[in-house]
Amino acid sequence: MNENKIDTLHGIQEDEQIKVVFVFPDGSEKECEANIGETLLNVIRNNDIPIPCSCGGALACSTCHVVLDEKSFNILESDDKSASEDEEDLLEVASGLEDTSRLGCQVILTEELNGMRVQIPR
Q1: May I ask the CATH architecture of the domain 18-119?
Q2: What pLDDT was estimated at residue 122?
Q3: 77, 101 in Cβ contact below 8 A?
Q4: Phi, psi of 88 (to 5 degrees)
Q5: Where are the domains positioned within the chain?
Q6: In this predicted model, what pLDDT tens digit does every residue of 64-78 receive, in sequence order?
Q7: For residues 97 and 84, is the Cβ–Cβ distance under 8 A?
Q8: Are strands 101-103 and 6-7 parallel, antiparallel or unpaired?
Q9: CA nearest 49: which of 87, 27, 23?
């Protein structure tokens, strides 16, 4: 029997966590615990990562722009969780855009993303 606490409204599995490593522009790192099913934006907010996230996850700005490690980016692409057209439009105006850029509000964490490295752009 699965004893994980599941937030059925949001699909968050509170007893199943993964590690996410944030890499800051100065090279320093912060390792965080994150629940499977939550967005990267929630992890950013819950761990005081210095990103403004101005629209609160409404897909209306690009302030939660992050750069994913190539492995994690490819996992999202192969799991059909690639950036939507709306996300891609917003990323076009993001500063420091890279090939593996995503908006944190649109990245939903899965078990396969355990250990992902997230670069915070300058």
Answers
A1: Roll (3.10)
A2: 87
A3: no
A4: -60, -40
A5: 18-119
A6: 999 999 999 999 999
A7: no
A8: unpaired
A9: 23
The residue type at 40: L
Of all residues in the chain, the percent with pLDDT exceeding 70 is 89
The two structure tokens encoding residue 52:
């403004």
CB-side neighbour CA atoms (13 Å) of 113: 31
DSSP letters, the chain, are -----EETTTTEEEEEEEEEEEE-TTS-EEEEEEEETSBHHHHHHHTT-S---TTSSSSS-STTEEEE-HHHHHHHHHTT-PPPHHHHHHHTT-TT--TTEEEGGG-B--GGGTTEEEEPP-
Contacts of 107 (CB under 8 A, 6+ apart): 39, 40, 41, 66, 68, 76, 81
Query: What are the tens digits of pLDDT across the range 107-116?
Result: 999 999 999 9
